[in-house]
Design brief:
4-stranded parallel β-sheet, Rossmann fold, globular, alpha/beta, about 350 residues
Length: about 350
């Protein structure tokens, strides 16, 4: 019998209004986000977080003043732990590690060391890999583990954009809405969090992986002649970001007089980008733009297929190193940010 600690990585979010500005500072101070030398990055992070905090606090006010991402992640961690320990000879224990707000990697690494596992399994709750999310979390964890003196061997997942359970969960959530709209003109919009175009041009596989997820979901739905599109939301700053934007596609649907079904394809839990940006801001935009009907599909959350898929991947990992959903490198050559190249 082996003791295995499973570390679930997620973004994190402010747990009270006064946490909004420090949360934003932590986000923009990350060198994976703002790619400047330390003194300049600190100044930029301070400036952006101070300027954006009042607007962000208004956004979180719609959510009761705090992000729901931690309780959502706790529910996923509990479901995964139960699934992993069901009938297993090994003992699995899940730990939540947030990147930009509590619980931070330093605190979690000490707790994991105290539990004294035989193996540590790193599980980003980002199905599609990016240097700005999964890679940043893994590096942060490795630094914290070294500082804590955690010596258990570690193995991790870098990505799982086409994992069968993930795809099945999305398809099951989408299918009833497509049935409801049968006979009406509509478009399925897969909306993912955007990235600056330069990050993708420099070798980040995120856009390619998002497109792979969307294609697999469409195939799973088996709907002939389905009108669908991938788009990107949550742009920040003046840089060129991935296109088309979700706003652009909403306006286009209004001009065409069709309905929209929005799928948050890169988020596995509800938070401000889904509950406020998609449900409130974009729904209002859709009404103003003349979109006939606007529907938003929930995130996969604790859907059984998604949790089972995570469990299967975790149990299939053998280390050390970083692996994709099938244990091999899945991205085409040219994506130099791939974690598997460094494992």
């Amino acid at each position: 019998m082996a003791k295995k600690a499973v570390i679930l990585f997620n973004l994190g979010g402010p747990d009270k209004p006064e946490a909004v500005e420090p949360f934003l500072f932590n986000l923009f101070y990350d060198p994976a986000i703002i790619r400047l030398p330390t003194p300049f990055r600190w100044l930029v992070a301070k400036l952006i977080s101070r300027r954006r905090a009042p607007v962000a606090q208004e956004i979180y006010a719609f959510l009761g003043g705090a992000s729901p991402i931690l309780p959502q992640t706790k529910a996923q961690a509990d479901a995964l732990e139960n699934r992993l320990n069901d009938g297993s000879e090994d003992v699995f224990k899940t730990f939540i590690c947030m990147r930009y707000w509590h619980p931070f990697a330093d605190d979690v690494a000490r707790k994991v060391k105290d539990w004294n596992p035989d193996e540590v399994i790193l599980l980003p709750l980002y199905p599609q890999f990016s240097s700005t999310t999964s890679a940043s979390s893994v590096k942060d964890w490795q630094d914290a583990a070294d500082k804590a003196g955690l010596e258990a061997p570690a193995v991790g997942l870098c990505c799982y954009p086409t994992e069968a359970g993930l795809i099945s969960a999305y398809a099951e959530l989408i299918a009833p809405k497509l049935e409801e709209l049968q006979g009406k003109p509509f478009r399925l919009l897969f909306s993912a969090h955007g990235l600056p175009q330069k990050i993708v041009d420099d070798g980040d596989p995120y856009q390619w992986q998002v497109e792979q997820t969307a294609q697999k979901v469409v195939q799973k739905l088996g709907a002939e002649n389905l009108d669908w599109k991938v788009c990107y939301q949550s742009r920040v700053g003046p840089m060129k970001w991935l296109e088309p934007s979700t706003e652009t596609e909403i306006h286009r649907a209004g001009e065409e007089g069709i309905s929209l079904v929005i799928v948050p394809i890169a988020f596995v839990s509800e938070h401000s980008e889904t509950l406020v940006e998609l449900d409130i801001e974009y729904a209002k935009l859709a009404g103003e733009a003349g979109v006939q009907e606007y529907h938003r599909i929930p995130t996969v959350g604790v859907h059984a297929d998604f949790i089972n898929g995570l469990a299967d991947m975790v149990k299939g990992l053998s280390g050390p190193g970083i692996r994709s959903e099938n244990g091999a490198k899945i991205c085409p050559s040219g994506f130099k940010d791939c974690l598997m190249l460094a494992s």
